[in-house]
Amino acid sequence: MGGKTCPSPVPHLSLDQCAASRRVVIMSRPRADSQGSLGPDDEVVPYSDDETDDELESLEDEGNCVLAHWLFLFFPPESGWSVKANDRRFCKLPEFQKKYFLCLKKSKYSGNAIKTYKYNALTFLPLNLFEQFKRAANLYFLALLILQIIPQITTLPWYTTLVPLVLVLGITAIKDLVDDLVREPLLNCHFFQTSFLESKWMNIEVGDVVRLNKNDHIPADILLLSSSNPNSLCYVETAELDGETNLKFKMGLKETDERLQEESQLAQFDVCEEPNNRLDKFTGTMHWRRDRFPLNLDNMILRGCRVRNTDVCHGLVIFAGADTKIMRNGGKTRFKRTKIDELMNYMVYTIFVMLVLLCAGLAIGNSFWYAEIGSKAWYLYDGLNQSASYRGFLSFWGYIIVLNTMVPISLYVSVEVIRLGQSKFINWDLQMYYREKDTPAKARTTTLNEQLGQIEYIFSDKTGTLTQNIMAFKKCTIAGQTFGEKLDFSWNKYADRKFEYQDHSLVACIRSGKNKEALEFFKLLSLCHTVMVEQNENDELVYQAASPDEGALVTAARNFGFVFLSRTQDTITVSELDQKNTYEMLALLDFNSDRKRMSIILRFPDGRIRLYCKGADTVIYERLSPNSRYKEVTQTALDIFANETLRTLCLCYKDISKEEYDSWAAKHKAASVSTGNREAALDQVYEQIENNLMMIGATAIEDKLQDGVPETIAKLAKADIKIWVLTGDKKETAENIGFSCHLLDDDMQIHYGEDVKYVTFLQTARREQPPAFGRIRKKVPDPFFEQSGRNALIITGGWLNEILYEKKKKRRRLRLKRLGRRPASSVPQDATQPIDDWEKEMRQVDFVNMACECEAVICCRVTPKQKANVVSLVKKYKDAVTLSIGDGANDVNMIKTADIGVGISGQEGMQAVMSSDYAFAQFRYLERLLLVHGRWSYIRMCKFLRYFFFKNFAFTLVHFWYSFFSGFSAQIAYEDWFITLYNVMYTSLPVLLVGLLDQDVNDKLSQKFPKLYLPGQQGALFNYKNFFISLFHGIFTSLVIFFIPYGAFLQTMGQDGEAPSDYQSLAVVMASSLILTVNLQISLETSYWTFVNCFAVLCSIAIFFGIMFDIHSAGIHVIFPSTFTFTGVASNTLRQPYLWLTIILTVGISLLPVICIEFLSKTIWPSVGDKVQRHRKKYEMEEEEKKKPAPFQRGRASRRSAYAFSHSRGYADLIASGRSIRRRPNVAHPNPRDTLREVPQADNI
Q: Hey, which residues are catalytic here?
């Protein structure tokens, strides 16, 4: 290759070069064990079930460790994950092949094409048909079609079943295909530059070197090699991975930065690591030029991130496609079906059993009738010498065909049409349209709408779902005085227009310059931080912070006139009320999860040395000087801020003499170069200087919730929907947000992981205790919490693993593979863990039951897989309908696992939306989706199904009664054309419109009275009880429709002296009575009348009579004499007044019991919906009472300082190393009046 530019992105190497290629072996890193400790670390995100193979090597059973060591000598592990730069042939070598089907092998390295859809061109037809024939009705009609092909038993033409079946399968297949195409990811259509060629994402392979530009999405998991920033620094936005919008920095190795700046050098090394789903870990080694270099997560840019504030960067593809960490956390795409679908399947089985029993009874009747009567009647002789039993056998199959309309195939077509219409209503709802981002609500599936009306548990992400992930500086206390009323910043023309603060007196203090404490307060905010600043293309200042909190504090200082301008490795320059000052930075003591504070030691221009410190009140108050002022008043202000669920931070300072600093600096230098536990040594040195501090005040930051979140949660809670928050954030942050959104309150008893483990231990002991003599164990379990009151649960991912103990199946497979034998199972790995699967399952049941006793559950520091596991546990042990809502790629697994998945299409990307069933822009729209659209969809579908079953039972069972008068001969009671058109033309439109438009109360009342949602959760509107009510209603109606006309036709004479007592006239009268009855019945069922509904009922009746007179006319009989045989029957029958009287009597008797029952039930036993309907006008005119403000209550200490508890490690190491400082010769500091501007979103925090 030399110094020439490669002609293609994949230069081929010789075999010798391949043999000598530099590989990477995975570095084994032992996991921290919690054994011997009081419990798991709440600050650590546990990946207990997601270990990589290198970690599993260190987790072998102690009893087998010696044996394993020797066996590894004889059974070496398989080749690791090796990558060679720009050599695609290397990944296809035999040692990297794996079996995927029988003896067929393929490379274990995935391509970069991502398939999130269910079908492809080959699998669509068989897989979709397989899914559709899971519906019992479709299988039933397929069997029916086969029967109709047999001439001896068919009573209806075969095409009467084939055409509707093909139509149903085709429409459903097209709908499923459209739904699946919508899931196709947008990522594969982006373009980016590989080594010297432009290519689609899907064409990238492991080992390719790629070039990415500013604002590009990362196409795969990439090792950063070099960038246009100094020292290969690259800023990335990880919003699609973890929902956090603040920028994070990645750095290439020093060696690759220095030696790979030219394109000709970008193909001369290789790396390796094994794919896993851990977003917090990457461990590997690079072999290059006979040297080895360690790799970690700071060197990796993961798929789903986006390049920010970096013009160009180069990287090597390590994992592609399905092997990337974002896809490993995505979970499988599952087929989702509603509970009503499952119930309909069981009902179809029930109907089929009933049908078989009916047909068997009628077949037996036919055998007896033929033996006793038919065989002796000469006029019934058909020339076939068949026995009575054989004729009964043929009659059985004939009745199977005749009575097949008990399960009408049009039912499923109608259900799909209704679901499609309901999905369109969601898409068209302007009240779920987010105008700011031009984002409407989107129903991405059409099969789950009615399930929205049955939700019992909601699992929500926090960041970006409940919150905006935008921090706002709301209040502060300075020298004992609290500030925080809204004010105008028009006096400062450089202020950020989005910044709001509510106090005029604070501005007056700043502008006057008389309040020294206020000036010191904002000077501290502008100096004590790890925010980094650089200039964009327009020479405007752009801030990059390690967290949104820190960015909010520096922005607040900027708006009050203390502007952070620039920093070098050892200086910080700020503009203090238009006066530029440069301070020498002597030391920067960064945040970590144990310190919960940060400090900076500065030398002022006049030579003074001062330490500024900010941190949690729990750690600051321990380090205050006894002479410090304002401690008590600041404590009171902190209580007030905490009660308002604001994130607080204490600010203080300390003047240091030169001698004290010199002594401390020597200790600091020694600790910083320590080869032992460097972090512990540094913490001890920090403690020596961070003491005798003087209090200045405290800040209060609001983690802004999305609009309407508390109100939405309160309204859903009234609907008896339990909300669980599953987040990867710190425990204190999650708890603080729980109070902010009113999921938690001070009246609740909050339980934590250690409490849960103790309670589950007691439950296990109680379960193992034998029952007392003579007593039977109670069926109702004892409550987990003995004390009365409201409970809440806050548990971390580490405690979840301790309590639930998920078995390491991957560890077991690896052990079996490497040891070559089954390990002894007599001794468990951990005596404190469950011995068998039954005990493990009991632990899971205990946890779910205990959590469900709580009004609120917050799971924090959980992995994406743990989120999905929690959802699965509730689905499994509570048999509840679940909904998951999230906005980031870390929520995809949870969204796919739940019965309903909702994606928030916010600023965190489209990963969650692409995997969701429904999508909208704001959490508050969930209230309308469930309480309005979900409830309406459920009510409409239940009413539709109840009526549909009724009308088909009433229609079909007339054949049953008629068979007693036709010798059980499988003779149909109606004209065959009436049977064909009954469900298609005569009765379909009114019930379809009820399924689409009906509503018991309007949308405002649905949201005002959340209790109306309860029947859906209980499944009260459609169950086996309702099914049998529809059955008995259909039996009664069919009895009336057959026997009243039958009685009227006995020994009757028409006005013209003719006797229209023939079979055809009876069929016309019964058909007319049935059509009028079922159409008037749906009118009684309709709660919301429109012109369309009225027109549909009248039109259906008119169509019936119009078509009947047409097909009974002489003209059509002349054209098709064998097809239309009821010539003149309709006109002859319906001109008889007494037959009209018969029809009216039949319809009246059929409807009268229904009217009476409806009247009595709504009068004597009214439901909540009936009561709301009765007073609907009154409620619509009422205005909701304004909520009174809650009285002040002293906040909990645990809710304070959420910022300090949740803040991650900043950029201190990066700043101290000087690697982040762009060295631009002869570039002076910009004038803040000319360049000061906060750049939103794209390049800012």
A: 461
